[in-house]
Amino acid sequence: MKNKFGMFIHWGLYSHLEEHEQVLARNDMDNKDYEKLMHQFNPVKSDPEQWVLIAKNAGMKYICFTTKHHDGFCMWDTQYTDYNVMNTPYGKDVLRMLADACEKHGMLLSLYYSNPDWHHEAAYNPVSTHQWKSVSKEKSDPEKYREYILDQLTELLTNYGKIYSLFWDISPYYIDESMNEYVRSLAPDILINDRGYDKGDFSTPEREIPDGTRFRSNTEACQSVGIQSWGFRKNEDFYSCRFLMSSIDKIMAMGGSYVLNVGPKCDGTIDPVSRNMVENWEMVSIG
Length: 287
What we know:
By secondary structure, this protein is an alpha/beta fold. Helices cover 27% and strands 13% of the residues. The chain has a 7-stranded parallel beta sheet. The longest helix has 17 residues, at 142-158. It is globular and about 50 Å long. The relative contact order is 0.19.
Protein backbone atom coordinates (compact mmCIF):
# COMPACT_ATOMS: atom_id res chain seq x y z
CA MET A 1 0.00 0.00 0.00
CA LYS A 2 2.05 2.90 -1.31
CA ASN A 3 1.15 5.99 -3.32
CA LYS A 4 -2.29 4.74 -4.28
CA PHE A 5 -5.25 7.09 -4.54
CA GLY A 6 -8.69 5.62 -3.80
CA MET A 7 -12.33 6.42 -3.25
CA PHE A 8 -14.09 5.71 0.04
CA ILE A 9 -17.87 5.26 -0.21
CA HIS A 10 -20.07 5.61 2.89
CA TRP A 11 -23.58 4.54 1.95
CA GLY A 12 -26.42 2.99 3.91
CA LEU A 13 -29.80 3.60 5.52
CA TYR A 14 -28.51 6.82 7.07
CA SER A 15 -28.49 8.45 3.64
CA HIS A 16 -32.30 8.74 3.90
CA LEU A 17 -31.97 11.18 6.80
CA GLU A 18 -29.42 13.34 4.95
CA GLU A 19 -27.51 14.28 8.09
CA HIS A 20 -24.70 11.97 9.19
CA GLU A 21 -23.68 8.32 8.99
CA GLN A 22 -24.05 8.14 12.79
CA VAL A 23 -27.39 9.94 12.90
CA LEU A 24 -28.93 7.09 14.93
CA ALA A 25 -26.58 7.90 17.82
CA ARG A 26 -26.12 11.62 17.31
CA ASN A 27 -29.86 12.28 17.38
CA ASP A 28 -30.46 9.55 19.96
CA MET A 29 -33.09 7.98 17.75
CA ASP A 30 -35.05 4.93 18.80
CA ASN A 31 -33.32 1.92 17.23
CA LYS A 32 -36.57 0.40 16.01
CA ASP A 33 -37.68 3.65 14.40
CA TYR A 34 -34.34 3.91 12.61
CA GLU A 35 -34.49 0.31 11.44
CA LYS A 36 -37.80 1.03 9.70
CA LEU A 37 -35.76 2.93 7.12
CA MET A 38 -34.95 -0.50 5.67
CA HIS A 39 -38.49 -0.60 4.29
CA GLN A 40 -37.89 2.68 2.42
CA PHE A 41 -34.50 1.90 0.93
CA ASN A 42 -35.01 1.84 -2.83
CA PRO A 43 -32.11 3.55 -4.64
CA VAL A 44 -33.48 3.16 -8.14
CA LYS A 45 -30.84 5.52 -9.59
CA SER A 46 -27.95 3.59 -8.11
CA ASP A 47 -25.26 2.74 -10.66
CA PRO A 48 -22.09 1.31 -9.05
CA GLU A 49 -20.45 1.17 -12.46
CA GLN A 50 -20.77 4.95 -12.66
CA TRP A 51 -19.07 5.25 -9.25
CA VAL A 52 -16.21 3.14 -10.57
CA LEU A 53 -15.86 5.26 -13.69
CA ILE A 54 -15.89 8.49 -11.67
CA ALA A 55 -13.09 7.07 -9.53
CA LYS A 56 -11.14 5.76 -12.51
CA ASN A 57 -11.36 9.05 -14.40
CA ALA A 58 -9.97 10.83 -11.31
CA GLY A 59 -6.90 8.59 -11.31
CA MET A 60 -8.08 6.44 -8.42
CA LYS A 61 -6.93 2.84 -8.23
CA TYR A 62 -9.31 1.34 -5.67
CA ILE A 63 -12.67 1.75 -3.97
CA CYS A 64 -13.32 1.07 -0.28
CA PHE A 65 -17.00 0.38 0.38
CA THR A 66 -18.89 0.36 3.69
CA THR A 67 -20.30 -3.16 3.83
CA LYS A 68 -21.62 -2.62 7.38
CA HIS A 69 -21.45 0.58 9.39
CA HIS A 70 -22.13 1.04 13.11
CA ASP A 71 -25.89 0.74 12.58
CA GLY A 72 -25.39 -2.93 11.69
CA PHE A 73 -27.22 -2.75 8.35
CA CYS A 74 -25.51 -4.97 5.77
CA MET A 75 -25.11 -3.82 2.18
CA TRP A 76 -24.70 -7.30 0.73
CA ASP A 77 -26.58 -10.58 0.51
CA THR A 78 -25.72 -12.07 3.91
CA GLN A 79 -27.40 -15.12 5.36
CA TYR A 80 -26.51 -14.22 8.95
CA THR A 81 -28.99 -11.39 9.51
CA ASP A 82 -32.24 -10.29 7.90
CA TYR A 83 -31.14 -6.71 8.41
CA ASN A 84 -29.65 -6.39 4.95
CA VAL A 85 -30.15 -4.83 1.55
CA MET A 86 -31.86 -7.89 0.07
CA ASN A 87 -34.86 -7.31 2.34
CA THR A 88 -35.44 -3.74 1.18
CA PRO A 89 -37.72 -2.63 -1.67
CA TYR A 90 -34.54 -2.42 -3.76
CA GLY A 91 -33.68 -6.05 -3.13
CA LYS A 92 -30.35 -6.09 -4.97
CA ASP A 93 -26.89 -7.01 -3.75
CA VAL A 94 -25.14 -3.63 -3.97
CA LEU A 95 -21.75 -5.09 -3.17
CA ARG A 96 -22.12 -7.68 -5.93
CA MET A 97 -22.84 -4.93 -8.43
CA LEU A 98 -19.88 -2.89 -7.24
CA ALA A 99 -17.52 -5.89 -7.26
CA ASP A 100 -18.54 -6.74 -10.83
CA ALA A 101 -18.00 -3.13 -11.94
CA CYS A 102 -14.59 -3.01 -10.27
CA GLU A 103 -13.52 -6.20 -12.02
CA LYS A 104 -14.80 -4.93 -15.35
CA HIS A 105 -12.82 -1.70 -15.16
CA GLY A 106 -9.66 -2.91 -13.42
CA MET A 107 -10.44 -1.22 -10.11
CA LEU A 108 -9.24 -2.76 -6.85
CA LEU A 109 -11.94 -3.37 -4.22
CA SER A 110 -11.52 -2.81 -0.49
CA LEU A 111 -14.09 -3.53 2.19
CA TYR A 112 -14.96 -1.50 5.28
CA TYR A 113 -16.43 -3.41 8.23
CA SER A 114 -17.53 -1.82 11.50
CA ASN A 115 -16.76 -3.57 14.78
CA PRO A 116 -19.51 -1.71 16.67
CA ASP A 117 -22.91 -3.01 15.67
CA TRP A 118 -26.00 -1.29 17.07
CA HIS A 119 -28.34 -3.99 15.79
CA HIS A 120 -26.73 -7.27 16.87
CA GLU A 121 -27.80 -8.12 20.43
CA ALA A 122 -24.43 -9.67 21.37
CA ALA A 123 -22.22 -6.86 20.05
CA TYR A 124 -21.97 -4.52 23.05
CA ASN A 125 -18.30 -4.05 24.00
CA PRO A 126 -17.83 -2.14 27.29
CA VAL A 127 -14.09 -1.55 26.72
CA SER A 128 -14.47 0.00 23.25
CA THR A 129 -16.02 3.21 21.92
CA HIS A 130 -19.05 4.00 19.73
CA GLN A 131 -21.28 1.73 21.81
CA TRP A 132 -23.93 4.38 22.60
CA LYS A 133 -26.77 2.80 20.67
CA SER A 134 -25.99 -0.88 21.23
CA VAL A 135 -29.32 -2.65 21.27
CA SER A 136 -28.52 -4.68 24.40
CA LYS A 137 -25.87 -4.38 27.12
CA GLU A 138 -27.28 -7.32 29.04
CA LYS A 139 -26.83 -9.80 26.18
CA SER A 140 -23.24 -8.83 25.42
CA ASP A 141 -21.35 -11.93 24.27
CA PRO A 142 -17.96 -11.17 22.66
CA GLU A 143 -17.35 -14.77 21.60
CA LYS A 144 -20.77 -15.07 19.94
CA TYR A 145 -20.32 -11.73 18.20
CA ARG A 146 -16.85 -12.63 16.90
CA GLU A 147 -18.34 -15.80 15.42
CA TYR A 148 -20.90 -13.61 13.65
CA ILE A 149 -18.12 -11.37 12.32
CA LEU A 150 -16.13 -14.32 11.02
CA ASP A 151 -19.20 -15.80 9.34
CA GLN A 152 -19.82 -12.51 7.57
CA LEU A 153 -16.17 -12.08 6.61
CA THR A 154 -16.28 -15.55 5.08
CA GLU A 155 -19.04 -14.33 2.79
CA LEU A 156 -17.29 -11.07 2.00
CA LEU A 157 -13.90 -12.62 1.27
CA THR A 158 -15.08 -15.62 -0.75
CA ASN A 159 -18.08 -14.36 -2.75
CA TYR A 160 -16.90 -11.05 -4.21
CA GLY A 161 -13.65 -11.74 -5.97
CA LYS A 162 -10.19 -10.61 -4.93
CA ILE A 163 -10.26 -8.07 -2.11
CA TYR A 164 -7.43 -5.55 -1.93
CA SER A 165 -7.75 -4.49 1.72
CA LEU A 166 -9.92 -4.81 4.81
CA PHE A 167 -10.74 -1.61 6.68
CA TRP A 168 -11.83 -2.52 10.20
CA ASP A 169 -13.38 0.46 11.99
CA ILE A 170 -13.24 1.18 15.73
CA SER A 171 -10.79 -0.97 17.61
CA PRO A 172 -12.28 -3.45 20.09
CA TYR A 173 -9.38 -2.50 22.40
CA TYR A 174 -8.25 -6.02 23.00
CA ILE A 175 -5.97 -8.33 21.02
CA ASP A 176 -7.19 -11.44 19.21
CA GLU A 177 -4.69 -12.26 16.48
CA SER A 178 -6.82 -15.19 15.34
CA MET A 179 -9.26 -12.73 13.70
CA ASN A 180 -6.76 -11.39 11.18
CA GLU A 181 -5.20 -14.83 10.83
CA TYR A 182 -8.58 -16.11 9.68
CA VAL A 183 -8.93 -13.23 7.24
CA ARG A 184 -5.55 -14.09 5.73
CA SER A 185 -6.46 -17.76 5.50
CA LEU A 186 -9.23 -16.71 3.10
CA ALA A 187 -7.33 -13.92 1.34
CA PRO A 188 -3.56 -14.43 1.68
CA ASP A 189 -2.61 -11.25 -0.20
CA ILE A 190 -5.05 -8.93 1.57
CA LEU A 191 -3.86 -5.83 3.44
CA ILE A 192 -5.49 -5.22 6.84
CA ASN A 193 -5.62 -1.91 8.68
CA ASP A 194 -4.82 -1.13 12.30
CA ARG A 195 -8.35 -0.67 13.68
CA GLY A 196 -9.11 -4.33 14.23
CA TYR A 197 -7.89 -7.04 16.57
CA ASP A 198 -4.15 -6.49 16.15
CA LYS A 199 -1.84 -3.88 14.63
CA GLY A 200 -2.50 -5.08 11.08
CA ASP A 201 -0.51 -4.01 8.03
CA PHE A 202 -1.15 -0.27 7.75
CA SER A 203 -2.13 2.76 9.81
CA THR A 204 -5.10 5.00 9.04
CA PRO A 205 -4.77 8.64 10.09
CA GLU A 206 -8.18 10.25 9.68
CA ARG A 207 -8.83 13.88 8.75
CA GLU A 208 -5.28 14.89 9.58
CA ILE A 209 -1.88 15.33 7.97
CA PRO A 210 0.76 13.75 10.18
CA ASP A 211 4.01 15.58 10.92
CA GLY A 212 7.23 14.50 9.28
CA THR A 213 8.58 13.96 5.80
CA ARG A 214 8.33 10.18 5.45
CA PHE A 215 6.09 7.49 6.88
CA ARG A 216 7.95 4.78 8.75
CA SER A 217 5.30 2.16 7.98
CA ASN A 218 2.48 1.53 5.51
CA THR A 219 -0.08 4.31 5.81
CA GLU A 220 -3.45 5.08 4.27
CA ALA A 221 -4.78 8.52 5.13
CA CYS A 222 -8.54 8.93 4.91
CA GLN A 223 -10.56 12.08 4.37
CA SER A 224 -14.03 13.05 3.19
CA VAL A 225 -14.99 15.79 0.77
CA GLY A 226 -17.49 16.90 3.42
CA ILE A 227 -16.32 18.56 6.62
CA GLN A 228 -19.23 17.37 8.78
CA SER A 229 -20.11 13.89 7.59
CA TRP A 230 -18.90 10.81 5.72
CA GLY A 231 -22.43 9.78 4.74
CA PHE A 232 -24.56 12.09 2.59
CA ARG A 233 -25.49 15.30 4.43
CA LYS A 234 -27.86 17.90 3.05
CA ASN A 235 -26.32 21.37 3.10
CA GLU A 236 -22.87 19.92 3.76
CA ASP A 237 -19.85 22.13 4.28
CA PHE A 238 -17.15 21.07 1.85
CA TYR A 239 -13.38 21.32 1.93
CA SER A 240 -11.85 23.33 -0.87
CA CYS A 241 -10.19 21.50 -3.74
CA ARG A 242 -7.00 23.39 -2.90
CA PHE A 243 -7.05 22.00 0.66
CA LEU A 244 -7.67 18.43 -0.50
CA MET A 245 -5.03 18.60 -3.23
CA SER A 246 -2.48 19.89 -0.73
CA SER A 247 -3.37 17.08 1.69
CA ILE A 248 -3.11 14.41 -0.98
CA ASP A 249 0.21 15.78 -2.24
CA LYS A 250 1.67 15.75 1.29
CA ILE A 251 0.54 12.18 2.02
CA MET A 252 1.85 10.95 -1.32
CA ALA A 253 5.17 12.72 -0.82
CA MET A 254 5.49 10.95 2.54
CA GLY A 255 5.01 7.59 0.81
CA GLY A 256 1.43 6.97 1.88
CA SER A 257 -1.84 6.22 0.14
CA TYR A 258 -4.92 8.42 0.33
CA VAL A 259 -8.58 7.45 0.22
CA LEU A 260 -11.09 10.24 -0.35
CA ASN A 261 -14.70 9.71 0.69
CA VAL A 262 -18.01 10.57 -0.94
CA GLY A 263 -21.44 9.70 0.42
CA PRO A 264 -24.06 8.84 -2.20
CA LYS A 265 -27.59 10.14 -1.72
CA CYS A 266 -30.45 7.81 -0.79
CA ASP A 267 -31.26 7.32 -4.48
CA GLY A 268 -27.72 6.06 -5.11
CA THR A 269 -26.40 9.08 -7.00
CA ILE A 270 -23.37 11.11 -5.96
CA ASP A 271 -24.36 14.72 -5.40
CA PRO A 272 -23.05 17.21 -7.97
CA VAL A 273 -20.70 19.06 -5.61
CA SER A 274 -18.98 15.87 -4.42
CA ARG A 275 -18.76 14.54 -7.93
CA ASN A 276 -17.30 17.78 -9.24
CA MET A 277 -14.67 17.79 -6.50
CA VAL A 278 -13.57 14.27 -7.40
CA GLU A 279 -13.71 14.64 -11.17
CA ASN A 280 -12.39 18.06 -11.99
CA TRP A 281 -8.92 18.38 -10.55
CA GLU A 282 -5.75 17.31 -12.33
CA MET A 283 -3.99 14.49 -10.50
CA VAL A 284 -2.06 12.97 -13.34
CA SER A 285 1.00 12.42 -11.13
CA ILE A 286 -0.82 10.05 -8.77
CA GLY A 287 0.12 6.44 -9.46
